Amino acid sequence: MASAQESTQPRRTVIALPGELPDSGGARLLEEISAAISSGARAIELDLSGLKRLDSRGGAWLIRAVRTARAAGARVDLSGARGEAAELIELLAGSFEAPRASARPAAGLMEAVGQKAFGAWREFGDAWRLTVDAAYWSFIAPFEGRGLRWKALLTELDDAGVRAIGIVSLLNFLLGLVIAMLSAAQASTFGVQIYVASLVVMGFARELAAIMTGIVVSARTGSAIAAELATMKVYEEIDALKGMGLSVAKFLIAPKVIAVLIAVPILTAIGFVMGVAGGFVLNAISLGFTFDRWWEQTLQAAAVRDLLQGGVKAVCFAVIIVMVGCHNGLRVTGGVRGVGMATTRAVVMDVFLIVVADLFFTTVFYYFL
């Protein structure tokens, strides 16, 4: 590249470009422009008369050089371009100016609240439509002869139910042991340790078995559902199913809905039994009541109303887990990070909605039933 030459005009620099503008030439051009600006030049002329060939990479260097000079406050003129180089420079003319970021005014309080409200309403609409589709393809379409993927249902039952028995049983057993120890510590001050059996049975029948099982299944199965569907969405497998004319609700959602609705109540029943067993183990270790006496007290405390309350909660929690997982999986955006965020959001929403639903049903049973 030719060296920079000072023109007769003060504070003006002329830089002549060589026949081509490779990477090394582009770097030298930037150095010469920086040196000229440092020496006080406020007008730079790029002499392109010697430029015989200019490809896209050279054009990128030229755009960078012009933007650098103009960003420093210098005026840049391009002169002498001929032939194909002139044609390319004409095409690039709009790129010499650095893009200006449009300054968007900060959202006010009411605007922010409105955006959140409209976003929540749109998400609720999406969730409602998904729920209606899932209900139809799970409980109506099979009886209309439109089929159900039985093999997929058995696979989902194995994943959501059979493989969760161990962790659900262990956690409920340990929780029963903890509740029994805490209760025994208080009951011993009044000499009524036998009522520990009643407390454990009522606690697990009404509340603990359902909510503990729901949280375990949401962390295990709900997250897996969200991750599976989110991955399929990211890799455009969901779009491929739609493109083939297949119903996503029938093909993917219905087997999961039926499987979770079957698995969670059964797991809750198993959790109830294991929680009561945990209380009995404490009795065998430290309280000293006979098996017959403890069993009699357990049966007396096991009311149908309490068991019904736990069963209703288990079914409700199952609906929450599967629908929240499917909803978050299908609305994922972005790549791998989006999958992780959708999975995390599904688990957080599951736990929150399970607690809210538990409060609602507990209030209804306490005041009205």
Keywords:
mainly alpha, disordered N terminus, 369 residues, elongated, four-stranded mixed sheet, 12 helices
What structural category characterises the helix and strand content?
mainly alpha
* Unreliable stretches: 1-10
Helical residue percent band: over 70%
Q: Kindly provide the radius of gyration, computed on alpha-carbon positions and rounded to a whole number of angstroms.
A: 35 Å
Termini separation (Å)?
91 Å
How would you sum up the global shape? Answer: elongated
Total DSSP helices: 12
Averaged pLDDT: 86
Biggest beta sheet attributes:
4 strands, mixed
- Along the chain, the helix and strand elements come as EEHEHEHHHHHHHHHH
How many DSSP E strands? 4
Strand order in the largest sheet: 1-2-3-4
Residues in β-strands, percent: under 5%
Structural description of this entry:
Helix 1 (23-38) packs parallel to helix 2 (56-71) and helix 6 (165-187) packs parallel to helix 9 (248-287). The chain has helices at 23-38, 56-71, 83-91, 109-140, 150-160, 165-187, 195-234, 237-243, 248-287, 291-301, 304-330, 336-367; strands at 5-6, 12-16, 43-47, 75-79. The chain is 72% helix and 5% strand. It has twelve helices and four strands; from the N terminus they run E-E-H-E-H-E-H-H-H-H-H-H-H-H-H-H. Strand 3 (43-47), helix 2 (56-71) and strand 4 (75-79) form a beta-alpha-beta unit. It is mainly alpha-helical. The chain is elongated, with a radius of gyration of 35 Å. A four-stranded mixed β-sheet has the order 1-2-3-4, covered by helices on one side.
